[in-house]
Amino acid sequence: MIDRQIRRLALAFLVLFILLLAQVNYLQVFASNRLANNPANQRLLLEEYDVDRGNILARDDRTVLARSRPTKGLLKYLRTYPGGSLYGQITGYYSVVYGKSALESAYNDYLAGRAAELLPQNLVDEILGRPKRGATVVTTIDPVLQRTAAHALGNLPGAVVAMDPKSGQILAMYANPAYDPTPLASHDPKAVRAAWKRLNDTPSKPLLSRASQELFPPGSTFKLVTTAAALENGMKPSTTFPNPPELDLPQTTNTLQNFGGEHCLGGAPQLTLAQALTVSCNVVFGEIGLKLGADKLVTQAQRFGFDQNVPFDIPFAEGSIPSASRFKDDLPGVAYSAIGQQSVGANPLQMALVASAIANGGVEMRPQLVSEIRDASGRVVKSFGPSEYGRPISARTAGELTGMMVQVVQSGTGTAAQIPGVQVAGKTGTAQHPNGNPHAWFVCFGPAQNPQVVVAVIVLDGGSLGSEATGGHVAAPIAKAVLEAALGRK
After folding, report:
1. Distance between CA 392 and CA 289 in Å, rounded?
2. I need a surface site. Which of 91, 195, 374, 476 has the fewest CB within 10 A?
3. Closest by alpha carbon to 95, among 186, 30, 14?
């Protein structure tokens, strides 16, 4: 009887031992990676905040967009954002509760000191008993242009993007509403959650950048894409089109009308393609869209990056246009898409890319937000040079489009962007949408014959002019201010 009890007890211990061994092996082998990276793992959190996270700098090497400062708390470093909301959508946040976004996320391995290029510096720090230090990320942002963009936009809802068309470097990218990442970087979880709730409860969605992450109808700025398609497919700036006040649309009794329902250019019987772009004639561009057909129009948009995966350092919603097959039974949709309405969507970064290809002789550069990475000793461990995204148009088409855009500013809808002594090329847009007053757009570059900077602006719902807004009245002066600052005219 006693032997049987001993055997049962031994068997029970054996089963418990096997279960314990299985659990230990499961935790150490199969679940180790998941547990180690679980945000609830306090040990991991403490290790992460033991690192003196690297700075994020503007292109001038002096303006600090994000830095860490030591604390006396359990978490040794606190992330701070000296520029506040001016750069918040670029840097993103580094949060003990909600993780990371934007550059804080995209370059986390460098900022946290974990990238392979930082191994030599890490070894030196360990030998000398210094805390682990992250790398510095140097951006392409020009603080003067960023401040100019914010000031010119003021309290208007919208966004501004400025870029160098020859390198693809983003010089400014600002949107209203903006947000300050500082409250999200607090070490007090209760305060972080309260800040998060405030931001997410705001209807205008400040955590989502209107410059690069939301899409809006581009209106007549999309006529640059339509004109490019026309020129690439045999039309010329001198090609003429009838000039009625409205266009009868196939497959329907509806018509497409000009702005204000009037004839373009005083009722001339015909307009050239160049004249139609100068005065932004909807009827002519609707006719061009129907002549080109959906395949050619959609293909041209895709060559500029619409509905493609355009590489960028932080999240980017590329422009969108329905596939050609979607237009098979919707020819009116082709006409409306040709003027940037209906199902076409874009943001200032996408339209800046379109203008940059025109400015750069037909070559579209990949948009770039970071120029180099430096270790804690200041040594450059990685640099990012210009890289070509594609060639959406020929050099000839780019030259012809540039000349036509110059006329838009000299004598057309974009005269508010004129700068004495500088030839500016531009295109206005006034985009209707069902949820409010029209969005006002302007896209430009200058000097036209040797472009140094491209600027794209959107002001939502007409800004202060409401239903009376046009791109030429509302958005063009904002773009002009940024262009002047970039060219040293202010």
Report:
1. 18
2. 374
3. 186
CA atoms within 13 A on the CB side of 367: 32
Q: Which residues are catalytic?
A: 220
The β-bridge relationship of strands 136-139 and 56-57 is parallel
pLDDT (tens digit per residue) in 405-446: 999 999 999 999 999 999 999 999 999 998 889 999 999 999
Residues 67-86 have a mean pLDDT of 96
CA distances from 283 to 15, 90, 431 (A): 83, 39, 15
Check if the beta carbon of residue 51 is closer than 8 Å to that of residue 77: yes
**Superfamily the domain 219-367+387-486 falls into:** DD-peptidase/beta-lactamase superfamily (3.40.710.10)
pTM of the model: 0.90
pLDDT category, 35, cuts 50, 70, 90? Answer: very low
Of 158, 161, 156, 144, the C-alpha closest to 456 is 161
